[in-house]
Amino acid sequence: MTLPMTTAAAARPRGRGRSVTAVLVGFLVVVVLSLGADQVLHMLGVYPPWGQPMHDPQLNALALTYRIVFAIIGSYITAALAPHSPMRHAMIGGFIGLVLSSLGVVATSGMNLGPRWYPIALAATALPCAWIGGMLHRWRDPERQLA
Asked: Which parts of the chain have pLDDT scores under 70?
């Protein structure tokens, strides 16, 4: 004989799924926007052809700038989609970005793909961008509970 699930117990898996979806959607927004902007800049001839290193620090600064903006947008979307604790969800997304960016720092070490500061800056800005995105959501929707 099985015992009936309580309402709270029944809601947990669905809430967990919505949490994962919120973080995944925010992450995908950042990836799609970043790769889309990269593609446009490659097509316009601003960036060198794909596969060639980008050694111009100004172009790396441009890429870092729009990636920061996109990371903030992605974190805002994560917070907006979160079933609860929007800031916590945004920061989880930021932590994932920090881990992936840190792996990128290690993986590209010694590869001479561009300025060394660029992948380090991506890692260093991951959590602040997540926090800003979560705070922007809080400002737009102060009724939602933050954690």
From this structure: 1-14, 144-147
